[in-house]
Amino acid sequence: MVRLGVRVIAVGAATVVLAALAGPPPAVASGHRPESQAQLRAKIQRASYGVPHITADSFAGLGYGVGHVQAEDNICVIADRVVTVDAQRSRYFGGTGPADANVRSDLFYQKAKDDRIAESWLHGRPDGVDAPSRQARDLVRGFVAGYNAYLRKVGVTGISDPACRGKAWVRPLTELDMWRGNWASIVRASSRAVLDGIVLAAPPAAGAPASTEALDPMAATAAIDAATANAGSNAYGLGRGATAGDGGMVLANPHFPWDGAERFYRMHLRIPGVYDVEGAALIGDPIVEIGHNATLGWSHTVSTARRFVWHRLTLAPGDPTSYIVDGQAEKMRRRDVTAAGITKTFYDTRYGPVVVVPGSFPWTTTTAFAITDANTTNNRTLDGWLRMGQARTVRDLRAVLDRHQFLPWVNVIAADSTGTALYGDHSVIPRVTQELADACIDAPFKPLYASSGQAVLDGSRTACALGADRDAAVPGILGPKRLPVLVRSDYVTNSNDSYWLANPAQPLTGFPRIIGNEGTPRSLRTRVGLEQVQKRIAGTDGLPGREFTSQSLWDVTFGNRVYGGELVRDDLVRVCTANPVATASNGASVDLTAACGALRGWNLTANLDSRGVAVFREFALAGGILFSDPMTDPVNTPRHLAADDPRVRTALADAVQRLAGVPLDAPLGAIQTEPRGTQRIPIHGDVHQTGTFNVITAPLVAGVGYPKIVHGSSFVMAVSFGRGGPSGRQILTYSQSTNPNSPYYGDQTRLYSGKGWDTVKYTQSQLAADPNVRTYYVTER
């Protein structure tokens, strides 16, 4: 029998105490009291903007509260995610034939189901870490129960969000749905990045001639990178040498999609005496992934490290489904998978699935390629984030990272109340050491590895297997001693370049190429991020003081400097003034006069009132930011426009053509907006390619502008640690709920439009100061 109780209590200055939560907290050790028979219960305190502060006396109860509130706000997003990992997209959303994206998705995820990947995560100990722990399992079990309780209460036909109201694809969750969804997120930058190549791989037809096609593996790498391009971030870890107080500060500024399953969700999760973390997680995840506790804050940025390696297979003569290892033929494992009414044969090897990328990694009569995905067995993520939330200092955090090695494709940037800051790429990275690369990457593929970090190993020798580091959490990945880590008392940063310049005063060097590059030019966004910190510490950025406060950190983050424009706008104006007509890529002659005038009057920012910024954006997207000088100082050079390069004028002509029908001097707020109901909310920020720190990406609609944001700043947190505990600012740019009938559908988006913020509400006194808090309880017996 299920009993759902919801009681609403207004919260003023006094703290409301949930009697059921009284008593000693549960133990943290893996042998703590099983919760399988315990009552699931949670106290929900909804603060301003709908942000839930959830308190429970167990991890199962905490998960129950999370599942319930996330269903209240985003049930359609979670249900849609389940359709994907359950391999049912074609059934509900259409799709015929393997050329259809839904069909390919279904075949990929059906193979994962048939391979029982999620089940393997939950049985035995496939790695050196006891994961998932009882607490992680309880979180998932509770989330499922909370989601299902809400769905039972409202019924499918009673869902208020029209996106899934009454839809047949909305159903109760199972725990396997959650673990499958977790796996899908973990392999985002690996198996999912080559999903099509796995699904479409097929041996050559009988009698096919040996291929004489020239291979271009670099093209495959570009396609793989494009598949993960819509993920990025900025983050600062600020130590006592960079802050106004003695404690540290953290800026979290992940750039993620504004729609779909990769939206963040703000929440504060608390088990008294055991776990107390405020921050955000991707919708559908039961644990805070970016956030802070009382003394430590952290964020993540997408790492440059590679998540899988290729193995070049030498095929047995006359049999393209057998390959040679140490002189002996080994048969591929053939697996027939049926989804969407289509049966597809997949081929697996000792290394992993065979993958085909035409023109780069083909399957011929003599050669095929398989991948080893280092994340496909990474069942440690929920435990890793749980333990991160319980760490008290940067030193504790580093111990968690070393022990669990769970981060799937991100760096970590952190700071604590002692004023210590940390950068680390502790992500899951295949064990390609320099020695292995020298011995096992054949000559044709060495340039690929040197330029991109993408390794193609000789699959015909067992000596070229990934091997094991003694300090690694699992075999086949680089151990902590081989990973870049930097601890400082001033600052560390990352904006999606490699580890090399986390702090230019102490470059990180000598690490395996698979992790990232060293000694190469940084992106404009990385450079402006570093310059902003340096100028703030020097007191030369025009803001008061010389250190970071919550106010100055917010002002810097949303200052919307367009660094590329600062460097080359004046030279570009001289070019277009001297050459008022240019030839576009399509051969047309284009008058640059109006564009030149718009650029001349532009204030070099991407604020709502900035005029001319769209011209520079399209110029940058057309590849126009070309430099004439070399990199001599990685933060400040190159910096001079290659004014004599004809591609510069062509890019500006292309920009004018693309903006036809859009006033070139229109204020950004008039042409870049986000719809919420009948309202169009003006949005500030600009694309990564222009060197804007506050990334906002919106497709250009001909004659209109940028009427829908698809990607960019999402959960933004500026938290500091002082004697009174954590304080600061935070916002979820696209708001808490995807439901147009929710009061939390556009409120934070309007707040973001005005560069506003919501305050950190970590302590009970901070929460009690919010006049909008409403409290209710959810219980299941």
Protein described:
Among the domains are: 9-24 and 38-199, Penicillin Amidohydrolase, domain 1, CATH 1.10.439; 560-692, Orthogonal Bundle (Penicillin amidase (Acylase) alpha subunit, N-terminal domain). Strand 27 (715-722) and strand 28 form a beta hairpin. The protein has an eleven-stranded mixed beta sheet with strand order 1-30-2-3-6-7-8-9-16-17-19. The N and C termini lie close together (7 Å). Residues 1-36 have low confidence and may be disordered. With 781 residues, the protein is an alpha+beta fold. Helix 17 packs across helix 18 (646-658). The chain is 28% helix and 21% strand. It is globular and about 70 Å long.
Report the top-level CATH class of the domain at 9-24 and 38-199: Mainly Alpha
Query: Do you know the CATH topology of the domain at 9-24 and 38-199?
Result: Penicillin Amidohydrolase, domain 1
Whole-number mean pLDDT: 93
Q: N-to-C terminal Cα separation, in Å? A: 7 Å
Strand content: 15-25%
Q: What's the β-strand tally?
A: 30
CATH architecture of the domain at 9-24 and 38-199: Orthogonal Bundle
Order the strands across the largest sheet as they lie in space.
Answer: 1-30-2-3-6-7-8-9-16-17-19
- Output the structural class: alpha+beta
Radius of gyration: 26 Å
Number of helices: 21
Regions with little confidence, pLDDT below 50 for 5+ residues: 1-36
Q: Tell the overall outline.
A: globular
Percent of residues in helical segments? 25-40%
Largest sheet: 11 strands, mixed
The CATH superfamily of the domain at 9-24 and 38-199 is known as Penicillin Amidohydrolase, domain 1
